[in-house]
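Reader question, answered in our methods column.
A reader sent in the components of a multi-part assembly and asked whether the whole thing could be modeled at once rather than chain by chain. We filled in our standard form and ran it. Here is what they sent:
COMPLEX SIZE: four components
ENTRIES:
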Amino acid sequence: MPINPDYLQLAPRVRSFVEQHILPRELELGACNTAAATLAASLQDQAKAAGVFGNFYPYADGRRPLTLRQYLPIAAEEGRSEFAPAILGGDASLDAYMLSRHANAELRERYLLPLLRGERVPCYAMSEPDSIGSIPATMTSHAQWQGDHWTLNARKWFICRAGRADFATVIARTADGPLQQSLSMLLVATDSPGFEWVRPLALLGRQQGQGELLFKDVRVEPEHVLGEAGQGIALMQQRLGLGRLLRAAHWLGLAQRCFDDLCKRVHSPRGELARLADKQLVRARVYRVFRDIAAARGLLEDAADKFDRGQANAIEVNLAKLAASETLSAAVDSAVQIMGAEGLSDLSPLSGIYRCARTTHILDGTDDALISNLGRDLLSATAPGRTFDYRSPSLSLDKVAP
Amino acid sequence: MPINPDYLQLAPRVRSFVEQHILPRELELGACNTAAATLAASLQDQAKAAGVFGNFYPYADGRRPLTLRQYLPIAAEEGRSEFAPAILGGDASLDAYMLSRHANAELRERYLLPLLRGERVPCYAMSEPDSIGSIPATMTSHAQWQGDHWTLNARKWFICRAGRADFATVIARTADGPLQQSLSMLLVATDSPGFEWVRPLALLGRQQGQGELLFKDVRVEPEHVLGEAGQGIALMQQRLGLGRLLRAAHWLGLAQRCFDDLCKRVHSPRGELARLADKQLVRARVYRVFRDIAAARGLLEDAADKFDRGQANAIEVNLAKLAASETLSAAVDSAVQIMGAEGLSDLSPLSGIYRCARTTHILDGTDDALISNLGRDLLSATAPGRTFDYRSPSLSLDKVAP
Amino acid sequence: MPINPDYLQLAPRVRSFVEQHILPRELELGACNTAAATLAASLQDQAKAAGVFGNFYPYADGRRPLTLRQYLPIAAEEGRSEFAPAILGGDASLDAYMLSRHANAELRERYLLPLLRGERVPCYAMSEPDSIGSIPATMTSHAQWQGDHWTLNARKWFICRAGRADFATVIARTADGPLQQSLSMLLVATDSPGFEWVRPLALLGRQQGQGELLFKDVRVEPEHVLGEAGQGIALMQQRLGLGRLLRAAHWLGLAQRCFDDLCKRVHSPRGELARLADKQLVRARVYRVFRDIAAARGLLEDAADKFDRGQANAIEVNLAKLAASETLSAAVDSAVQIMGAEGLSDLSPLSGIYRCARTTHILDGTDDALISNLGRDLLSATAPGRTFDYRSPSLSLDKVAP
Amino acid sequence: MPINPDYLQLAPRVRSFVEQHILPRELELGACNTAAATLAASLQDQAKAAGVFGNFYPYADGRRPLTLRQYLPIAAEEGRSEFAPAILGGDASLDAYMLSRHANAELRERYLLPLLRGERVPCYAMSEPDSIGSIPATMTSHAQWQGDHWTLNARKWFICRAGRADFATVIARTADGPLQQSLSMLLVATDSPGFEWVRPLALLGRQQGQGELLFKDVRVEPEHVLGEAGQGIALMQQRLGLGRLLRAAHWLGLAQRCFDDLCKRVHSPRGELARLADKQLVRARVYRVFRDIAAARGLLEDAADKFDRGQANAIEVNLAKLAASETLSAAVDSAVQIMGAEGLSDLSPLSGIYRCARTTHILDGTDDALISNLGRDLLSATAPGRTFDYRSPSLSLDKVAP
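And here is the structure of the entire assembly that came back:
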């Protein structure tokens, strides 16, 4: 379903933009200060002018300009720089997707349209200091119905972009009873009374906007519920499914960047002086990084194809997320190793990528949780009486609407 | 290029045949005795009757009924039993391919046509006791031109199917000078005077027809040269490229079989008694085996697509071969581990598959050699001034004719 | 506690005997036929004459001539050949140890003394076709008390040496109630009425005496119970603890043999022709194999030290068993890989060692079960309120008598 | 050779000091600001008062108070905090060792004695921006003999402690000709004219004193040469040998800390809520971390024993360095994974330890270089005609004087 026939041209254009405008300024962008924010905003304007902004944003009516499969090579180009997805809108496309599917007229007007113009920064407030991420039942955030509105009380942490977000999608319990019917997604503007930015939370020493949030008696109008109240679990799964794929797509781009940098170093004068190209241990690194990327890309494409066809793809998504995460970690590790101490220093973008890579094993589900779930799901798909097809293990699971 | 529109039906038919006729008789087929040979021959007749024989054989005029990409899912079904490729003709399709492209009229008549009818068993005589497999220059086999024919002297070992072959494709030096122009492929009938079956060479205790051959002053007519004399290296590479892919495709089928057997055990009464499905270490095995298969399949499909388009695919082929080999080894290892001692005994097909899997790391190029070559080729493809495309790293290398 | 000051001389003497008398005849010894049995018996006589037999046998009064720590380097020499432990008595020392500690006067006279003279072959009958190895509660073998004797009914499989054993130590339920008090170890001569050798069970195609046994209404005198009736679980743990260590010690010797063979190949004319010593991937294999051996030896020594001091050493034993098993598997795999197809053929002892190595991951506890237990035990040892000492994690667990 | 019978008491005393005084203040110590430096200095004074400072410092006459083997458990306690070795003098003991062996009277007076009192901070200036670390021949630093003194010109980078060092040991070429006789170790006070602190070089975003140094026409008196001019390579190897061991000993302590923190988390209320102790994937992590530590400790002890006996131990040292580095990386990675995002944040010391762990694969020799060298050395030790002893592979190499 190639909705946008021009997408083949889009990837190289994104690549050019990233290479010319973003890569040269990564050190500045990584500085986590006001100058960095100003620079990012200015680059975003340039990206809009160059037609490489919001590449996976749905139209306001919810139609998608590209299939996910078509977007993958574009996402890989966006992903080459840690900073490009935020600048090019890639970071916000998940929220745009959720809003375009589940927001009512008021929310569309207030959040979706400005978001599509790149005028709003969203964040997603799920994790809590005192709950277990993989066990939603341990969540303590809740909103009390007051007859005509909700009163939200929640503490959330490690929320990406929290420091610069204009609105937050908050997960909270809105009813007693079984979890499947009692969680909801609430939209809260960050200038609401009772919203509080508690503190930044650096990850491996990098402070890039993530932090802890407090929602204290925040008033939430009933129209600010995404979908219906009580649909939280279903919406979370939907969000998580696409979210993991989008992240994986960007991580793979970052891994390709590491591969390129690794090869560039081997071919550099320093690399030639050390005769790196002749060393089998170097070649083995080059091989493994490339193999990992190629294999992960295949898994990602499978998952994206199913998404585009509206088929259940939980198995494929989780395989792709784990593979992209491992691939990125191994790629940056090898690139650093070939660069030596320089690769760990501020002189090299690898220093940031290395730290970014580590977070991927925790973000959106820890490795162990995903592995255990995948094993369980595969065993369930192969249970006696079920027909298991290698190409589409999840076909036999329940379908989600497209 | 879907030459054969019926191929979608072929895979399930092959699967049925393998499941109904071959899997139940694997213990007998693995016995390496006369009864096994008789049984295999009888099953081959049944396969011909059922229309599941010679699935990747070219037509006599060289056209292929299926693209390689179309054949992959069929090969995966053939590969579910170690014994099926020999019975269904999968083992001979590489020779059929080489003969259909490079044999002259006489060779076609004498070897290709009977081969396509399943009446001849071919073997490929390359490895030598005193040479290094990865260094063709160390080969000592040679054929001397006698004015009107060649006199071949060669000792070859670890030749698959040597014990039951009707003819051999022999690599020998036919001229002095640079290797690129001095090796040739000679066809020798195994009833030629001077041909000698020296001894069987079991692999991990299994004797399945492979062994050592001696060619002592064997007369080879000039028409028995494949292609042209001196083209040996080029033909070897061509053969190796397709050969590795075909093997990888079969190995992946065998890995899928192991996955199925592993899951079946988990769901069995014994597995339920031990509560295997609840154990995370079991789930992790299920996950890893499935992931490996899914990833390797993607790599294999990439390589096959390029083969079908006549593009250079050395990088993709070697990635796929290594991945299929690793996948099979890990899959059978996990399946054995879940089965326990039973999985190592004659009561289980895994005992044979485990040993088969070990040979894949040596056959058609050792892991280390392939890894080193892949690293070198990737570095060459990314050298300064070259444009590297992740989707098709080898596009920038020289193309081979389709 | 150096009971035997001569032990330093013993290791080199064992090494010489193995190198001169056993290694050159491994192909014959591996043939699994009568000639092999005759040869093994004759070599055992030579070993007795040379004073290298029964190196870890206790004296008849139960004292040990060597500490386990002192025996380790001797066991490593015995282990260099798969066949040496059986010939030199290493295979029987575990039974000798159990009998010397737990047998009454009659059993000592009837079984221990002839065993110490090398005149009896013992076997240990625990695994059952329908039970889960790691869940003793699933065992179905049982012995019914008849007022003055037991009537044993049991089916046991994958019993090592079953085919040539003179007596078996059989685990069976002798009472109802909690398992800790209801299993017993019964000694049964293999010429007892009702004892039946059901069938051999080859492992990876090798038939070396292991198989399936049936005990049908076998009469067992009350004096034929080891220790006391009901002590089965405690005795099994004792046996398993020392048994795993003895096996690990022999496996490490076999791994050292593989390391030596690998290096020998690198230094051989073939290895020089292929310039193996210059290849980093070869060097990396040499490094890893050596590192694994050195690391596993350290773990084994820790476990042996605790055994000699009579301290609980379950954690150390299981670490050592897993490490020795992994080490052997990786060592033989690398040695095979460097040898190429030859290493998998009957021309090389590696073919047998490779298959032996695979069984070590199942024998005496599967990897997954040991890993899960180790994790549990380590978490238990580090629980709040307990003092954890890295050098001796198990010191805080209950001690067993020396 | 237990010179100091009290060393058994020292380890627990160091442990107490680290636990009570250093661990609670790690966040402050890691801040890389003036307050951190002041705090460290004050803690150092406390350590001196508590008798836990300079634990491996030689006496002024060069005798060692402890063998290296005796120091290992003490170093493991020092290593529990990243910051403890600097505070307790562990970071400076290598310089103290080199000076006590190779410094002349003047250097002893000027540098060694104040160093032993903890009044001087040393640094070691070897790496250069334009040379390959593993190829000393590519070094460009040089000192020109001026008749009565040397004139040193050098650029060095990634020099630990450079920012707060009082003197530097600089490697420079002092003669033409073969490298073995042309490098020297020069001592330079950091207040010498021509010494310049170019810039700090953060590692993974942490700035802890390492940076780039310039030596521009620095005058070096002939007495400021360590050992003799031209002995540089020999002294570097000596320094590197002990240096790697000392670092490995500290890293192992840090890995033990991670193990403890991991277990603590499992036993915490959050861990119990998530039922971590029952999860096999958690248990497998606990097992692997403990096994790695236990194995690495054995390798380290072997290397230290040889050091104490004055035997060549290059193989053992490099094995131990690689093992400690891998162990630390895997330990902190698992601890982080169990902690989740919290483990990556400033709320946890793991955030710093994770970054520290990454540097260990590059510091003092990259993994690949060490692995390749180890493979080469092991092959050399097993060459035909040499007797290889598993317990002491390097015994057959040339001995160095104690």
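What stands out: The mean pLDDT of chain B is 92. The first strand of chain B starts at residue 122 and ends at 125.
Send us your own complexes using the same form.
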